[in-house]
Design brief:
The protein is globular. It has 9 helices and 9 strands. The protein has a domain at 1-70 and 194-266: P-loop containing nucleotide triphosphate hydrolases (Rossmann fold, 3-Layer(aba) Sandwich). The chain is α/β, with parallel strands linked by helices. A hairpin with a 2-residue loop joins strand 1 (4-15) and strand 2 (18-29). Helix 3 packs across helix 4 (113-126). 35% of the residues lie in helices and 24% in strands. The structure holds adenosine-5'-triphosphate and magnesium ion. Adenosine-5'-triphosphate (ATP) is lined by residues 15, 18, 20, 38, 40-46, 56. Magnesium ion binds next to helix 1.
């Protein structure tokens, strides 16, 4: 039997008057790869950030988020690593990348500065930054967008988390670079046994890289299950509509999903 890593029950999130999520249940198996899909504004980021414990203070929530896979309350950075769409948002522009990663290692692994720097170089090498050791003293702006996202990934993994939450980690990148990052994520997840929750607009990506899919529509979970089943034999008309749009990696982000006629789904 597979062990449950994460158990969300009846999650509701409000930002003032806006109900971003309502009554959402979710279960994620240890080592599982869950893709959260749905159109813009459906609550994907809210769900991801609620699980990461990163909702803004103004948000009110109800329900429960439990981690049966952990013996303790999860700590951000240590148990949960987070990767955002824009790597610039998670990297400090005025701090050397080696120092940024080493700081996470020191904070969460309790190591000294020298071994944290060694570990930072190992992590940069792990995400395929060429000549990692000699790049420790470089600043984020010295790298391309794809490389910056690799560095952000190294920082997200520096605490040795068991869960990685990635909110559209490749949407801001060129198609070819997207593939590289997605392949890298796949490789890391498979090798390290990480549990992965990723948000995407991209059905093709979800079908290739997730074993489980959760479909959000206007803040509600309309369908969840094995990826092959949800995408192969969707049970909800909204999922059918999503699949019907033939979303591909190279469709501009804001154009995707916009054509769906959801008037009959109320
Ligand atoms: N900090 C916030 N304050 C107020 N409202 C918010 C905030 N964040 C999100 N919302 C609202 O909550 C709803 C869900 O937003 P969320 O960002 O979770 O959607 P999303 O599915 O991630 O969309 P996108 O695909 O555009 O990233 C939307 O109506 C959004 O406007
Ligand atoms: Mg979002």
């Amino acid at each position: 039997m597979t062990e449950t890593y994460l158990h969300v029950r009846n999650l509701g999130v409000n930002y003032g008057e806006t109900a971003a999520l309502q009554g959402v249940p979710l279960e994620l198996a240890k080592g599982g790869r869950l893709a959260v899909i749905g159109e813009s504004g459906s609550g994907k980021s809210t769900l991801a950030m609620a699980i990461a414990g990163l909702l803004p203070k103004s948000a009110r929530y109800e329900g429960s988020i439990e981690f049966p896979g952990l013996a303790h309350r999860p700590k951000l950075g240590k148990d949960i690593g987070v990767l955002f769409q824009d790597p610039s948002g998670s990297l400090d522009p005025v701090m050397k990348i080696g120092d940024q990663i080493a700081e996470v290692v020191m904070t969460h692994q309790g190591t000294g500065w020298i071994s944290a720097r060694v570990r930072a170089a190992e992590l940069l090498d792990r995400v395929h930054i060429p000549k990692a050791l000699s790049r420790l003293n470089s600043y984020p702006h010295e790298f391309s967008g794809g490389q910056k996202q690799r560095i952000a990934l190294a920082a997200a993994l520096a605490g040795n988390p068991s869960l990685l939450i990635a909110d559209e980690p490749t949407s801001a990148l060129d198609t070819v670079v997207q593939r590289h990052i997605v392949n890298l994520l796949d490789e890391l997840v498979r090798e390290s046994g990480l549990t992965l929750l990723f948000v995407t607009h991209d059905i093709a990506l979800a079908s290739e890289r997730a074993d489980q899919i959760a479909v959000l529509y206007k803040g509600r979970l309309v369908e969840t299950g094995a990826a092959a089943r949800v995408l192969g034999r969707p049970g909800h008309p909204y999922t059918k509509a999503l699949i019907g749009t033939h979303i591909s990696l190279d469709t501009p982000r804001r154009k995707r999903l916009a054509e769906i006629d959801t008037s009959e789904l109320q």
